[in-house]
Amino acid sequence: MFLSRHRHAALASVLAMLCSATVISVSAGARTWTGIGPEGGDIRVLAIDPKAPESLYAGTEDGGIFKSTNGGASWKPLKVGLPAVNVSVYALAIDPAFPRTIYAGIKFYGLFKSTDGGESWTAANTGLPRSSTVNALAIASSLTETVYAATFGGLFKSTNGGKSWSTVSPGLPRLQRSADVPVEFKRVTILAVDSTNPTTLYTGTDADGVFKSTTAGREWKSANTGLPKTHVNALAIDLRAPATLYAGTDDGLFKSTNGGGSWTPVNLGLSRAAVPTYTVAIDRRDSRVIYAGMSDGLFRSVDGGKNWSPIISGRAGFPVKALVIDATRPHILYAGTLRGVLKSTTAGQSWSAVNKGLTNTFVETLVVDPRTPNTLYAWTRIGWTAGLLFKTTDGGKSWSPIGGGLPNTYPSRLVSDPLSPTTLYAGTKRNGLFKSTNGGKSWSPINAGLPRAQVEVFSLAIDPGIESTLYAGTSGGLFMSVNGGEGWTPVKAEPNTQVVNTVAVDPTNHRTLYAGLKDGVFKSTDGGETWSTSKLSPQYLLTLAIDPTNARILYAGTYLSGLFQSTNGGENWNSINTGLPEPGAQNTALAFAIDPTDSKTVYVATSSGVFKSTNGGERWVAFNAGLTNSFVKALVIDSTVPKRIYAGTQGGGVFVLQESVSSGD
Predict the structure, then answer these.
(1) Strands 359-360 and 40-41
(2) pTM of the model
(3) Is residue 387 a part of any domain in this protein?
(4) What pLDDT does residue 496 have?
């Protein structure tokens, strides 16, 4: 045993405190996951009821559809009839004559329709390509049974309210068919219909600019004079002067006053001329007032686009991708961002977050404080470049963003010192390593000795036997610190030449290390001086876990190949996938959690949800009741009684499940 006397005593004290609670009598657990936040998330589209503007809908990335009936003060998820998990909503359209009729375009699931204000939904895909993604929707305002849907397989039209669809793509740009591109037409990204003439409509494409039809979609012609052949994200038609329209593109904002006959850039006052523009909204009462949501915030013009001023700054996490205006009170705006919905009642001069009940956060890593188990940290991803760290001290009833000094960067790993849980270490994908000694309130970089400050960190592990010793698996190999991260040295041999996705330290012998790489598991028995290759090669390792009561038992989670177990310290490995999905994309293991009071009980987070074994991995059962997102990235156990298990999902935030000690499968 290599535990120091002080550390051994402290660990024993912690375990005694946790285990002593088992004498408490508790009722049986519900075995159902419950979402607890943090609220907010990636808002892809917003829609507002034209007749009852207190009612609005939000379509999210992987989190489904939410509805508010009180102007955003609170939200509820709309689930009945929609796919059960991982619902990405890219388009919403409300029938202007019968606003309880709503259409939703969903990634890989096509089109769904509701006639009761979103309370229930039915698929409306007859005639659409199989497993299509609907990118954009538009309704002809005077012919509301006429609906247009843009998919990866071209543009489609329904004249019977979505009961059936037919293609209306002639003249739109085509793709060369190939094994890699099994669609015929380039992607239509946005649609707009002239409200005064329903046979006139416009489409934006992903690489060829704008196209126009004056024949209700039967024929299309390019409308790109003055407009670069670019990705078009937004189209907005002036309701008072429908020959005037705006196109938001990856190369900036453009305006046409002749029905798309020609375009001119309107970028004066924007942060830069070619800033990507994602959404455009025009004030119905005064069409000189225009709002443009961009990659670096929201801008407003009061002179028809001649000049612009910022009304939401370009803070990281605030590209504005969706925007709606209250038709009856145009000073009320709603903006969809990567951090949720914002509302303004002052025409954009001031904003407040309105996300109560709307949870669509992408949790990359979780930490629970073993001494105060109602304290939980959730580090969330914002888009693909930024992150935000949240903390709760009341078990998820409320969350607060924290992290002074922690860069707004892509999160990777978060760990806490088990003996001093207010000491946290954070690994990022772009900015190296950071440390906090006050429960996440403030952070300092700890990159001395790493190959560069911008090193990508993929894994972190604290040595349970040696004070202030930890390991960081990075894009530049495996590094070790013996002084709480103040300085780092590379370990020798193989793991120092590859990306280290996961690292584990033997809790009974601190010189025994395991490193998971794309080529399998490597083991060192001398503190990283030398390494041997495990027989699990060439599996692509994503996560490792060691049985806390028998360190010779290891669990390995791989990319596409499922789970493996070793009972002899990594010398041999056996597949343990009984009860799991077939190896492949649906059986990618991302995290393990082992019950510290019964190590035969193991949980695994996968791309298909959470699975549980009560016999050390021999058999697994799905453990997903209540989960609305099957892609579970993080899993931690609070071993107080009743047991609490926390799951961090991609698009549904954190879920908690509470079981009684005696419950079994």
Answers:
(1) parallel
(2) 0.87
(3) no
(4) 66
